[in-house]
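User: Here's a chain of 868 residues. Predict its fold as tokens.
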Amino acid sequence: MGTGPRGILLRALGQAWVERGGARDALADPALRTVLAALTVRANVPVPPAELIAAAWGPSPRANAEDALGTRISRLRTLLAPTADVTWSETGYLLRVDPGRIDAVRFERLVDKSLRAGPREGVRLLNRALALWRGPVAYPELTPGGRAHDEALRLGELRFRAIEHLARCELALGHAGAAADRLLELLAVEPFRERMCALAMTALHRAGRTAEALETFRHVRARLAELSADPSEELRETYRAIAGAEPDRLTRRWPVRPPRLPPPTSFLGRDSELARLTALAGRERLVTITGGGGTGKTRLLLEALSTIDGPSPTVELSTLEPDEVPLAVAAALGVHARGTGDDVLGALTDYLSTQRLLLALDNCEHVLTEVRSLAKRVLPRCPGVRLIATSRVPLGVGGERVLPLAPLPSGGEPLTSDSGRLFLARARRVRPGFVITPEQTGLVRGALRTMRCHPLNIELTASRAAVHGVDELKDLPLEVVEWAFDRLAVADAELLSALTVFRGEFDLRAAEAVTDAGGAIAAGITRLAELSLLTVEDAKSARFRIPELVRQVAARQLAGSPTEHKTRDRHARWCLDLATRAAAEATGEDDRAAAARLRSSAADVTAALRWSRAEEPGLAGELAGRLGLLSPYRSEVDFLAWQLALGELEHPLAAGAAARAALRYGDIASARGLAERGAGLATTDEERCLALHTLALTAPDTESASAACHEILALREVPDAHRVDALAVLSLLDAGTGGEAAEAARSLAVPSAHRAYACYVDAMVRLARDVEDGIAALGHARALAQQADAPMVEGEATSAQVTALLRLGRLPEAAKLLLHSLEHWQRLRAPAQLEASTRQAQEILAAVGESPEAVIPALSRFVGTLAR
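Assistant: Prediction complete.
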């Protein structure tokens, strides 16, 4: 007889076994143990012979597999008789046994009973249940497709739940030290179980081991950081309760763009409005800051956003055409979207339905219809999203809370009012020694009483008074911005008008590229900045921006003037130069910085594309083509729609860039067609290489992909980075035996994004040989991709790592990564990858059941939202 607990016949919680005399010799046969496990996991249900053969001998069994199976079945009948038997039915072999004689069933029943018992009885039952385990995993013989069996995963999760419940029972009985030690032992091998970590911290704290509790948090946080993941809210709350302080700020890299920083000038006169806006933003779904031009709506918004944790992308709408609004919002969020405005809104809503963020829309008044449509689509379907808008008038959407900005107070003694304090502060910023003499007091008082005391008006009058004297304020009209512009010298007025072609920030070099001011440009910009007609956004790097109301006034002089075409052409060519330099650096070590510089001028580039498409199509094609030469591993979402639209031009680089954009959108057929046209138009190695890379990635078969890669390798005038790309694709085509190509890719001196891709390919080759080694290599590739800002590589590496972790049954780690993977592919609108990741999530959810682990409910909510 066996030595196990009374009544147990079949063991599955560890190596498959029969508690009978003679079993040791018989079950030394691995195939017999596997057949036993395959029958036990489906006890009292027929199992087709083909499934038993595949489990015991793999997908390519030996010729006499059916005879070998019959021999094993006979042995099992002998071992199991008379308590159980293996019989034949119409659909397969059937193990007839009392379920209570199987240790896995007994374990589950004991755990279920413990959940309804008191702490003392719970400890007794759970100790009995856990003693049934004779190995680290259940059904170790069953590894379909090289991965753990679903039932093994489910039982493993139930075991962890049992250990956690045992620790809670021990805590209830005052045995905190024993509970802590039990949980720490498990955390040493399962560091990604956050709920278990929170329970261990609580137990340590109650046992008087608070320092150890906090160290446990830091250790788990460090392991989570390896996944670019943050601790769950439950774990952070446990830290707060024990430490009496907030944990370090979250480390997650948000894919959305950060908001603009407020300008480096003092913020005066709006303290109460800032406090109210901050409070409203924390509890309301839609807040609109209203007020006339120059009232400081944008500045108030930026000040509020600078105090808010978490993602808060800002979309500047003032220079956009109505049809550009949806795409601008998509770009700020990193969402790949194309088609009609309604199509883009649908894509945005899909993505935002799973997000928690604050979206800021600045200067909405001229695109109210589009902003209203956005708010009406997003707010009902995206419960985690809040909107803040600035507009001269309310949006008129249900649930909107309006925060009106009035002029700054100037009543009583104007010079000591908020308006007077701002006037003096801005004047002294220009002229530190500025004072108002007794003779000038009346003039300043009169100006403050006459004009609308909007912050912009005060800044313009104060700066004018500081530079040209207080007498300038005599007969101050109501329209201060027009007054300030009209009093400029002709050259300065022309300079300011020319600078209105910039949609955002610009520096001295950019200004020189678009104007006729020659060597006087620096002096002219200095004068305009002193007069507050330009704001200094970054004094260190000398970057400027035109206040929106000033832009509107100055742009009237440029519109329709003899110099407008020349100025806009220069602006477009400056953008082309910017894109050309970024494309050149895409194969150099300055790749990431160059791309960031281009991205900071994205609004200018899209404006240049819009203008040149209508006025200079050749220039538009060249600009779109240079954008297509940026890193293939980084998605410059601002430009994708334009690249695709300009693929219609007879320009080889434009066709190649359009092909790459179509590939980013997941349109393989269009990508291949455009790439074939680009290859046909190509006359240089650069043009041909761009098209061939897309042809390799969209090839219908291995031979075509390989041919495209070898053609890239044969080109003379291409950077080493593109050779790396070709070698890497060749390695993926021959995974498992392509190590030579991967090694060659790693050995080349290439920039970080390409090196990250080479490391990803190398990891895939290694994964085919050794799963553990491949997982570690994929983690390294993910880290390199993050450092290089290469989200395309990061996404592929993350998905591959999730797949490998699932093969090993490492569910919490896989689930934590899978949340990022699902979000990534949803944002990139990649249907095939998103479908694969969703299937993985459903597999995890099916395996773990109602797991209390923090990441599992989050994963369930995400998948549920996607399904809706």
